[in-house]
Amino acid sequence: MGNLYVGLLHFPMRNRRGEIVATSTTSMDVHDIARSARTYGVARYFVVTPLPSQKEIAWRIRGFWTEGERAAEASRRGEAMEYVVVAEDLEETLEWIEEAEGARPLLVATSARSTTKAEIPFDELRRRLRTDPGPVYILLGTGWGMADELIEASDVILPPVMRESDFNHLSVRAAAAIILDRVAGDWDERT
Fold this sequence. Notes:
about 190 residues; Alpha/beta knot
């Protein structure tokens, strides 16, 4: 599954009032999504924020597990954190992927809300990942979701994890794990 990429974007996001903001980087999101990404064979996990203080936090979290005492322990967490790349914006990550893959990735947005964007069902994206060598880049939002401009810039959008739930507000790390299991998991091959 070397052509699958995941990005956790912190700007432009919506806050609870619908305003466009840059959200905070959290250690749990950086750490837990890295572990899920590594488990499901993601090539790189990008933590994307334009704020220098937030980039520093993300690098510090990564470094805690990949440098110094923790790295000497040969921790499996450190192995997962090696896949984290901290970036300024979506364009920087797209350039990184295009350089690594030689092609622009299929840009896949996610949202807890239904949108008018063309949806790609989870099973269809899973089939594509298994049959098409082209890169796929799944974008995850923080705060109260991605700004419309990010969704519109994407090629397709995955359906909400729980479209019919009366409480559709998973943490991004939980949603990331579910999404990765649905598109990259081996559950359809189990007996």
